[in-house]
Amino acid sequence: MLKKVAIITGGAGNLGRAVVKKFLDSGYHVAVTLEPNAHVEEQFRNQSPHLDLYELDVTDEEKAANFIKECAQKYGRLDVVSMLVGGFALGTIADLNQASMEKMLRLNFYSALAIAKPAFEVMKAQKGGRLIFIGARAGLDLKNGGYAVEYGLSKSLLFRLSELLNAEGNAEGVVAAVVVPSVIDTPANRASMPNANFDEWVKPEVIAESIAFLCSDAGGALRDAVLKVYHKA
Q: pTM for this structure?
């Protein structure tokens, strides 16, 4: 029997590694996108015979579409596509400008749209699949995201995109969902906020478990899911 297939963009990051491990442990064949010229430890490259690594600029619409097409042909089907690529920036309304807004859109929205759109067509044709986006509190509730306006605006579009995909895809068994973490407990976040209470933050492994649940048979019964993984933060 063919293994289920998961595509994970941004799989080399702290969250990405946890999600990759969870899906490998769950019996999936996992295809991971890495930034071009990314330096990845051999331990990650040799993690499993069921792990394939691809260098890809996921904001390049044409290359992303070709990548999805090649994966669908190679693996036979796409069961899960989890889009983890993103970026953060502080800034108020006074700081808002087109150049920096465009950067946030490219990292947080275009990176997901370029992958989700062709994957959605593959999943509709095969009558099923899960699309997972990573949202943000600042994008879920914009009035409380004044500390990171451009970031919040770019992330807010993922919720709307998920709604649109569900409106068209649910009848074909294609389900989109948004996972919304609070502060993720990573070395980088600890270094940038050394006085914070790290026990209140959410672990990457917990987010990975949440994503895996959404892709399970039980999670597949959910519709228009927005999963808030906040822990105590």
A: 0.93
Question: Smallest Cα–Cα separation from 179: which of 86, 41, 48?
Answer: 86
Q: At what angle do helices 111-126 and 149-169 cross, to 10 degrees?
A: 10
Taking Cα atoms as reference points, which of 142, 181, 176 lies closest to residue 14? 181
Query: Which domains, from first to last, does the chain contain?
Result: 5-229 (3.40.50.720)
The single-letter code of the amino acid at 15 is L
Cβ(73)–Cβ(52) below 8 Å: no
Sheet arrangement for strand 51-55:
51-55, 29-34, 5-9, 80-83, 129-134, 174-181, 225-229
How does DSSP assign 134-165, residue by residue? E--HHHHSGGG-TTBHHHHHHHHHHHHHHHHH
Q: Which helix (H) or strand (E) holds 59?
A: none
| Ordered mean pLDDT values, 10 residues apiece, the chain (233 residues) | 87 91 95 85 75 94 97 96 94 94 97 98 97 95 90 97 96 96 86 86 94 91 89 75
Residue 73, SS3 per DSSP: helix
* Interval 47-104: pLDDT, tens: 788 999 999 999 999 999 999 999 999 999 999 999 999 998 989 999 999 999 999 9
Q: Which long-range contacts (CB under 8 A, 24 or more apart) does 166-169 make?
A: 166/223, 166/224, 168/124, 169/120, 169/123, 169/124
